[in-house]
Amino acid sequence: MTESAFPIAVVADQVLPRARKSLYPQAILDVHGARLQGREKRALGELFGLQNFGANLTRLAPGAISALRHAHSQQDEFIYILQGCPTLYTDAGPTPLSPGMCAGFKAGSGDAHRLINESESDVVYLEIGDRSEGDQVVYPDDDLQAAFVDNSFCFSHKDGTPY
Questions:
Q1: Which residue among 60, 103, 108, 142 is least enclosed by CB atoms within 10 Å?
Q2: Tens digit of each residue's pLDDT, the chain (163 residues)
Q3: 53 falls within a domain
Q4: How many domains are contained in the chain?
Q5: Structural domain boundaries enclosing 45
Q6: What is the CA radius of gyration of the chain?
């Protein structure tokens, strides 16, 4: 896309959802895929050609998860709840969230996090994260780790063998 091809403004919930539902390897999707299928991301930042950070409008159906519980070494993350009442799971345990609440996840803290929609209604939230080269991601509950290299995540088992 050329610079002139980027829109000036859009209605966020009218942006087409991301075609690829998840970046996780197939072996992880075989185990957790059903819960991730209930997640729909609209890549807002990419639509405008943003390269330093990503912004997604994300919808979680009842029972869906935002991601496997994870922590980044270099990437800060931020979420803002627009609709619904997800539960945020961190190393401190569950925290109920509601519209208007936000949470931030500082890079390098080691505090793993994820959202779960344990309610009967959809959850909609805005998620923002940077794209720090050299980012390492740990997944304390799963045999998974990731490294951000050349603008994409490379996944491996915790012993370093690739998926």
A1: 108
A2: 455 689 999 999 999 999 888 888 888 898 888 888 899 999 999 999 998 999 999 999 999 999 999 999 999 999 999 999 999 999 999 999 999 999 999 999 999 999 999 999 999 999 999 888 889 999 999 999 999 888 788 999 999 998 8
A3: yes
A4: 1
A5: 39-156
A6: 16
